[in-house]
Structures are given as C-alpha cells and as structure tokens.
Design goal:
By secondary structure, this protein is an alpha+beta fold. It has 4 helices and 13 strands.
Length: 228
Amino acid sequence: MSKQYAVKAEKRERAGKGIARALRREGKLPGVIYGDSKTPVLIAFSANDIQKEWQKGHMFTHLCELNVDGEKNLVLARDVQLHPVTDLVEHVDFLRVSPKTTLHVNVPVHFINHENSPGIKEKGVLTIAHHSLDMICRATEIPESIEVDLTPFKVNDTITISHVKLPAGAKMADDNPDFALASIIPPKSSGAEEAAPAAAAAAAAPAAGAKTAAAATATAAKAPAAKK
C-alpha cells in the first residue's frame, strides 16, 4: 500500500503570475488538481506545508490526501515547479487517482548490505548504472523504493534487474527484459600504483645525467688553457 501524507488547500478562482505573487506574499502557493475525466480545479495551499513534504523526497511516490475546503481528494504529485535560484517550490500539479489507476512512476533504488558483500569486502568498487527505475504499477501500490541486496555479489559480478524482486503487481516500463543496475569492479592494483613512481624516477635519471654531463662540458670549456 502506498504511503500517504495530508495537505489542506482551498479553491482559487483565477490563475496568472499576478495571482501567484499575491499568494506567495500570503505564505501560500498555487497548484492544480486534474485527471479522472473531471474539470481541473485551481487550488492554493500553505507554502511551508508543501515545502516540508518536498524536502522529505517522497512526493512523487507517496499519495496525498488533499483536503480542499473540506472535500478530500486522493492525489499524486506529478509535476513540481521550483524557483531557479532558491529551489523552493513554486507550483504543484496533482493528479486524481483511485485504486484502479495505473501509473508510470520513477522509484529510487537503494543498495543494501554493503558490509556483507564478498566483493566489497575484497575492496571491490560498486559502480551504479541506475539510481532509479521507471515502473508501471497501481497508484495505491507505489513502492517507496526498490532494495538491492548486495550480500551474494563478488568482484566482477554484474547486478541486473533479474536479481531484484519487484513488488506484486509492478513491472518495468523498459522493454529490455534484463538490464544492468550495477557492477562490482576489481580494486586498483597496488603494484600499478607502486610502478608509477618508479617509472617516473627512471625517466628522471637520464635527464639528470644529461644535465650533469652538460655542466661538466661547460666547466671544461671555461677553464684557461695550460701554458707550454
């Protein structure tokens, strides 16, 4: 079951930049509710309330019980507009949903149990190809995240989507049946690291010898000729 949070809002009659500025002076933000074959509704809500939810990082995967003048609406944030400098929320588009609604959602991927992975223990490096996944699922069954257990993976292993157990009723939006999520690559060779300074020293030795020979030649040239 998708997690939920609650926000109170009120209807607003007009749209436009002037209205948005007036709302912000009152500590409010503009938004809209659309979808479910119903007329879109313009709303306004507390800027602080929405900013707090946005900072929690879950607005695109958690449902919202949006109370508009006493009427409860089950919605999901689909677009959040941010200020280009401050990154503060400026506007939110909410989609009406129901238990029958099917959505494309972007779900974060979390890699867990690093300390139990043989590859990590051998100082292998986890290289991540995908930090999130595009999935199709019901609105009321959106997973908060997808967890990938690193326990069985060794150095040179590739972790693919087939290694992940998806939530019931969810499927990948990508047509590729089995793509790579991450891999554990070998650690850097200590021998290679030690060879680099040695090679630099070896390259410097002939140069130093050439400088010494040149200096000796110059000194000999400057010395006065012996008298006969």
